[in-house]
Design goal:
- The chain is an all-alpha fold.
- It has one domain (3-159).
- It has four helices and no strands.
- It has helices at residues 3-40, 47-68, 84-119, 131-159.
- It is elongated, with a radius of gyration of 20 Å.
Length: 163
């Protein structure tokens, strides 16, 4: 593994740790809200907003690590019957298309975040600004696009006969 790849994979691991912490935060907040609502009739204001924001952190920040681990759902019913070279060609094609999609989502999310910031958009309940959430989505998708670019380069090398 080269130095740039090592750095990117380290960043993806850190983002995944943030996603794990967000899951834990969602769990603690939801349990505390239910407990306070049931026993004291006093729920935590903004729980719905906060859990939604944390959910975007979970999804966005875990994408790159899941991509590295090849943990996304794939249906290889048809491709498993193909030759190894054909499978590699399909893998390269999928990496290229996925790279384009995630780069596009990252770009458009960043543009949207800038617009949210300029407009001063906030959540309804706790008045939290929405632009950091959109920037988080852009960051997670950009990191996933970088991981896919690394995978694409490795796939092209394998197609060329290099390990």
């Amino acid at each position: 593994m080269g130095k740039p790849q090592h750095v990117v994979y380290g960043i993806a691991g850190a983002a995944n740790a943030i996603a794990a912490a967000a899951v834990a935060g969602m769990m603690v907040l939801t349990c505390a809200d239910v407990f306070l609502r049931f026993f004291f009739r006093h729920p935590i204001q903004g729980t719905y907003d906060i859990v939604g924001f944390l959910g975007t952190v979970v999804v966005s920040f875990s994408l790159a690590s899941t991509t590295i681990l090849k943990g996304h759902i794939s249906v290889d019913f048809f491709t498993s019957h193909l030759s190894r070279t054909s499978q590699r060609i399909i893998d390269v094609f999928i990496d290229a298309v996925s790279l384009g999609i995630f780069a596009l989502i990252a770009w458009r999310s960043a543009v949207y975040a800038i617009r949210l910031k300029e407009a001063g958009e906030v959540s309804l309940t706790i008045q939290f600004p929405l632009y950091p959430v959109a920037f988080g989505i852009a960051l997670g998708c950009a990191l996933t696009a970088i991981v896919l670019a690394i995978s694409l380069v490795h796939g092209l090398k394998r197609l060329g006969g290099r390990p």
